[in-house]
Amino acid sequence: RQLARLQGMPLSVARPASSDTVTELKLEFALRAALEEDFRQFHLVYQPQMQLSDNRIVGVEALIRWEHPEIGLVPPPRFIPIMEELGLINALGEWILRSACRQLRAWQDAGIFLQMSINLSPRQFQDSRLSEILAAAVRDAGVQPRHIKLEITESVAMQDPQGTIEQLRSWRAQGFQIAIDDFGIGYSSLEYLLRFPLDTIKIDRAFVKDIVASPSDRAIVRAVTVMAQSMGLATVAEGVETQRQQDYLDAIGVTQIQGYLFGKPMRADELARFYLAHQGQTTEAGVAAQLAP
Ligand code: C2E
Ligand code: MG
Ligand code: MG
Ligand code: MG
């Protein structure tokens, strides 16, 4: 059988030029094997989120990394859809939730206090057991739900807006915070933005990318930010890579930034060092300011 033949193939074999399907199959086998290996090929990295009003790191976003011994690092947009299709995402999703919660606990024990943002995939969002899985993850790790922020994408939220509203309400009743990820702007989405129970809106990188050059992108970011502000929501601009982009976002009133300019996604120990170095400085500055006449 073709599948058996593929399974026996070394994974480093050059991609067959003929079709993407074979590569997908290869990834599929490698993913199944990786899950049997008890998640050893997976790890989380954490990207800091900085609050513009006081330059403090207020949170991190947990991002999954899959490193196969032969294929190497496979980007999440490449393998998450495959796991969704295969129905494997819930197992990985639960591992991500539990790992992120345990990491948060470990940081808290070290005096590092952060909000932990965790991405939920579309299938995970639809899983009826998710509320229980979430509750177990925070309980077992010994963290409070209010320190966890669940990210769902705008497109997933819009698939069934009424169902989304109910789902988000129940998570908020459990104490979790909610962010809407990759927020762009469809006219229909603005109406729902007002109705979804949210804490944070993450402005999609696409709008940040051209914010310096494009007056229309600036206008969109401004409109979303003004609305978020009036609703008491935090705004996070994603993918901030240059100081000029940050300056524009700051002037518009976006509350937080996340991007390579401030900090790339990093391993937990690296993030702790980054946090202590950065927050140490801002704390010293804060103390100096208080002592000044
Ligand atoms: P996302 O949730 O919107 O995550 C932000 C992505 O933007 C991350 O890519 C991050 O590394 C990247 N990024 C951050 N700052 C910059 C920047 O300044 N410039 C550029 N060019 N990129 C930046 P990553 O880690 O490759 O993840 C891509 C997507 O995969 C995520 O988009 C999310 O949709 C999904 N994903 C990642 N980790 C997880 C996870 O643990 N669970 C689920 N369900 N999905 C995940
Ligand atoms: Mg995200
Ligand atoms: Mg995003
Ligand atoms: Mg994005």
From TrEMBL:
Keyword terms of this UniProt record: Phosphoprotein
Highest taxon above the source species: Bacteria
Boundaries of every EAL domain copy: 24-279
Any Gene Ontology biological process: phosphorelay signal transduction system
Membrane-spanning parts: none
Name of the protein described by the UniProt record: Response regulator receiver modulated diguanylate cyclase/phosphodiesterase
Biological source species: Geopseudomonas guangdongensis
Portion of the full-length sequence here: 407 to 699 of 701
